[in-house]
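Problem statement: downstream parser choked on a complex file, so we are re-checking the raw output for the iron/sulfur cluster run. The parser issue turned out to be on our end (a line-ending mismatch), but while we're here, posting the original submission so the record is complete.
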Amino acid sequence: MKVGLKVWRYDSVSGERALREYEIDAPEEATLLDCLDIVKDRHDGSLAYRKSCRMMICGSCGMRMDGAAVLACKTRMYDIAQEGRVPVISAMGNLPIVKDLVVDMDPFWSKFKAMWPWLEPGYERPDDGREYRISQERMNVVHKEALCINCGCCVSECNAMESDPEFLGPQALAKGMRFVGDPRDSATVERLERYNQEHGIWDCTRCYFCNERCPKGVDPRDAIAKLGAESIRLGIDRDMGAKHAKWFVRSAETTGWLREEELIPKTQGYVSAIKQLKFGASLARHGKVRPVPIPHTARDVGEARNLRKVVRGQDRQGALGHVQGERALARLAHGNAGESLEEIYARPGAAPRPFLPGEGQGSLTQADVTPGKEPTRKRGEA
Amino acid sequence: MIAKHDVLVVGAGCAGMRAAIEAFDAGADVAMISKLHPTRSHSGAAEGGINAALGNAAEDNAEIHAYDTVKGSDYLGDQDAIEVFAEEAPGDIIQLENWGAFFSRREDGKLAQRPFGAAGSPRTVYAADITGHVLIQVLWEQVCKRDIPVYEEFFAWQLVDHEDRCQGVICWDLLHGGLKTVGGKTVVLATGGAGRQYRVTTNAYACTGDGMAMALHAGLPLKDMEFMQFHPTTLYPTGILLTEGCRGEGAYLINKDGERFMKHYAPNALELASRDVVSRSEQTEIDEGRGIEGSVLLDMRHLGAERIIERLPGSRELSMTYAGVDPIYDPVPVRPGAHYHMGGIETDNDGATEMTGLYAAGECACVSIHGANRLGGNSLMETITFGRRAGRSAAEWALSHTTVEVPESAERDAEARLRELLDREDGERPWKIREELGTSMLENFAVFRTEEGMTKQIEIIEGLRERYPTVYVEDKGEVFNSDLTQAIELGNMLDTALCMVTAGVVRKESRGAHARPHDYPTRDDENFLHHSITRWKDGGIELSKSEVRFTKWEPQERKY
Ligand SMILES: Cc1cc2nc3c(=O)[nH]c(=O)nc-3n(C[C@H](O)[C@H](O)[C@H](O)COP(=O)(O)OP(=O)(O)OC[C@H]3O[C@@H](n4cnc5c(N)ncnc54)[C@H](O)[C@@H]3O)c2cc1C
Ligand code: SF4
Ligand code: SF4
Ligand code: FES
């Protein structure tokens, strides 16, 4: 197939930038990375980009396509080529460009290192010199965070970092959550104190671009939310952001709805609230302040309170609560995806059903290799 | 020389990082050189798991692990090394866990272990299907904790051989340009595999056998180079790997008639037979016309959506992205692809090579615990256990010696060679040679080998090597000149490939990954129970042999 690409070239020696267009012949299964390879091999050997695994695990090939961060090796070109689109390829954002599509990752790694990105082994050290005994369920709290491949796609798109280059950023904070949520770690409080400082978790603008652009489903914004929840659970709530979040909960619990006119004083204190009277006035203009602040309670406030009681009762505060919610959502999604095996085999054009006369599922027992809750059953067993 | 260190580790995959951590803990001033950032190393792509006889899932011990490894190696593994390996593996895994590795767990909270091909007991510790990623992360975390310096995106090119000692490495600084020499009292090579010699491979673009070639060019012996393992389940058409864990979880291999053909080849172990057996069975099915477009099918449908999503999410994503197939609904087209180099730089059990001060570990080394065929899960373990041992012995040697010296002539010669390559004004672009190498290796030196094919392949490689001196680097800049490094990598692949095929032709038997069903279908212990040694001499290859070290297992027929 014919693929067209426009690539923002950059020469750091001369400082020149130029948008160059290439048209190449590529196999139908080609990814963006394959296309760049063809350009480099056959058209222009000076094109610079990083690559290694070409299977979305090494995190080398982050770049922007039409302004949004992607992994080049994860991006198939077939549909784009069919539509006749000629995408613009450029280096990732929020990081200095070295040459063409290659960025300087030093700022990225120095924030990573600021997180104490290693386990501080603590409490329940196994006394038999063996592994820690931890349930899979506890480990699952940081499962998504453990998937991060340090590609930088989230950082590239981060809004908060654009205005505050010092902001620790989605990747580093997700790495932080990786350890805060790890039951083996003993430095939770110290970590949270550090991540609660300026340029830390509360400076995130919640734009969710990081979640959207992360190629591995890490959902860094969720990790930041979990860090927030853990901070509050452990009483690390001096930051305005923490007070703000707490007030949301309190407000929902007491009256069942958000009392915005109280938000600022509760979050920033009364002095600073007075300074923000202008903001208050604009709230009023948008109908967000009731003319007479009479305490008023939503009709179904009981439900809100009950929900909160359930969460408390299960001792699922902080990050655990988040994870529980996520899992519940995932399960709902699974439930809808399931066709039965018979239906799958019966699909038109389905490949033939495997058989092995007189045999169930092979000769090796799978029964004892399963992590987590349910042991795997052999086929045919109840 | 821009800097010097006690221990200089070249390569920052699992083997390199583990060696550096150990050298640091032994009190040495250690640094790493890597052409990729450490977390980008190809160890991170390993999916299935890492073997240690913890005995968490079923009764197991080091002796059974060692026996399985010896048998798997088709009796070409060095048994003293294998015993060390199997005994020290469990401790190394526990240490990784204590460092924070994110392994999967059993219900009782212990580390989970899954069955893997040709293992007598479920002993593969894993993290869903991202085991390598988890290992790379935990090692990188420990490197950060110790603040071990890394010369990142430095391309190691030549060893400094001065006064019969290895005293450093000459590198090309990819990010800033220029040749830079880093001195080291000892150097540990941990540069990984060379699968890029093949067009269909599970290996990353960076796996070009640089370390093997550097050692070869320094006059060191490479051992058992003819043994390249083919992985049975690589995605059509790219060669991206689907983990053996798929079959461990119960996936079937079927041919175009829907038949589980493994019952004809390995009636007991079926899909979980050793990799060489499964690869050959697939190739036979394909060659005899029972494949579909040069591949067979890996069927996971009966595992059900939930199990696939929970246990094999990575494999599912790979299938969907690179083959356009969702394994929940359809079987995935797979075929054998070049995967793992059993051979490499000859070392002793402490990673020491023939050259004083030079050590090697990981896939670029050959201790040898894999012999003619590696078992799945053993190579990650090897990177850790032997990375640690090499790091320790390199540090000990370095701490008892004081000098590092790099003669100016070495740097000048390298500069001259580099300029010659960089200043060439025209010639052939490297990609054509690279593609011809990849295609011909797949044709003539893959799952099945014949006298005729191998002889032809030597000629082809010689022809490509003759063209290589005209290779033209188009990028003349200093900053991130990957055009230059790719040209150097091509030279490394050509030379190591020549070693492989040269050693292969003279091994007139079938053993492990070296299968010659048409002319020498059986193993011949009388004449070939020895390691092949290849060296660079006078611009060509010199072949010799060395003995296999036995302890307690006598060669027997290998059956699964
Ligand atoms: C897809 C895949 C899946 C696998 N799955 C498993 C599995 O489940 N279980 C198992 O046991 N094994 C598995 N293996 C094998 C195993 O992963 C590798 O053998 C092992 O990770 C190699 O580690 P290493 O540290 O030796 O090399 P690598 O991790 O490849 O690291 C090489 C390092 O050397 C550096 N380097 C290379 N050349 C140069 C140079 N010229 N200059 C400077 N630096 C250089 C690189 O930057 C890199 O840091 C798998 C392999 C692949 C390809
Ligand atoms: S949600 Fe927060 S961390 Fe994520 S991109 Fe937006 S500002 Fe950055
Ligand atoms: S969180 Fe996602 S986008 Fe960000 S570095 Fe990690 S893998 Fe990349
Ligand atoms: S090349 Fe490794 S993630 Fe794209």
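For whoever reads this later: Strands of chain A lie at 2-11, 16-25, 62-65, 68-71, 88-90, 97-99, 102-103.
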